Amino acid sequence: RSAAGKPGAPIIFAHRGASGTRPENTMAAFRRAVELGATGIETDVQLSADGEPVLIHDETLSRTAGASGWVGDKTYAELRSLDAGSWYHPEFMGEPIPHLTELLQLGKDTGIVLNIELKNTIRAYSGLEEKVVRAVREYGLESRTILSSFNHYSLALCKKLAPEIRTGVLYMEGLYRPWDYAKTLGADALHAYDPAVTAERVREALEAGGVDYHPFTVNDEARLNALIEMGTAGIITDHPDRALRLLMQRRM
Ligand code: G3P
Ligand code: MG
Q1: Relative to the CA of 115, which ligand 1 atom is closest?
Q2: Do you know which Pfam families this protein is assigned to (predicted)?
Q3: Which of 11, 133, 174, 247 could form a disulfide with 40 if both were Cys (CB 3.0 to 4.6 A apart)?
């Protein structure tokens, strides 16, 4: 049992896949997360101009896909022809921007928990919630998926469309009693920017009705240990192997 009294080890979410050692949001990063033993994968989903759900963090292509312009202005075929690996290291040249269904298939094959972040704050993607929910249901992954977003209207819509799928409220800091707010959204977890997380808040959230904390993005060993000690239900990290090693050490 963890310090906060929540049974079980936290879910270790590989942030954008194992992005500490692979190009973020590529199948190489997702597969590496599985190899390292991560129990969850976080990713970011947007829509192509022709409405296909694709996994990429930025709304524009310049940083990770070697092209100019917006993700949402390109067709799926155009996005698919881009190279999302070379920016990270030449070894990953030609890694494509994945389609959501490729990750869902990996989730189905491995049993890993999927934390799918709907990236619809800077750009509004009409129909994104419906498409993601439909795909998760098609793969039968409702019980092993968490839908998260900084756009909380989007989260409320997800909950309305699919009450059976968990949702996580992404926020930076400064929310007072965020577990109360989560409940007004029907949300199950708080995906809090790490500095907004304290032992007292984790405890209060659990006492107030089982709202889980999944802090992001935590790579520092001392802080990972502190969060494990607090009993957060999940931790989002670029280095899942680091978090898993600390968990193992605690068991010895
Ligand atoms: O889901 C946690 C984290 O991914 C949120 O921020 O910018 O990395 O998508 P960002
Ligand atoms: Mg994200």
Answers
A1: 1
A2: GDPD
A3: 11
- From first to last of the 252 residues of the chain, give the pLDDT tens digit: 344 444 579 999 999 999 999 999 999 999 999 999 999 999 999 999 999 999 999 999 999 999 999 999 999 999 999 999 999 999 999 999 999 999 999 999 999 999 999 999 999 999 999 999 999 999 999 999 999 999 999 999 999 999 999 999 999 998 999 999 999 999 999 999 999 999 999 999 999 888 999 999 999 999 999 999 999 999 999 999 999 999 999 887
Q: Which class in CATH covers the domain with range 11-251? A: alpha beta
Q: Does the annotation count 57 as an active-site position?
A: yes
Q: Would residue 239 show up in a list of annotated catalytic residues for this protein?
A: no
Q: Whose CA is nearest to atom 10 of ligand 1?
A: 57
In the chain, alpha helices (H): 27-36, 62-65, 76-80, 100-110, 128-138, 152-161, 178-184, 199-207, 221-230, 240-251
Rounded distance from Cα 15 to ligand 2 centre (Å)? 7
Q: Which residues contact 62 (CB under 8 A, 6 or more apart)?
A: 68
Domain residue spans of the chain = 11-251
- Expressed in angstroms and rounded, the spacing between residue 252 Cα and the centre of ligand 1 is 32
> Is ligand 1 within 6 A of the CB of residue 211?
no
Global ipTM: 0.99
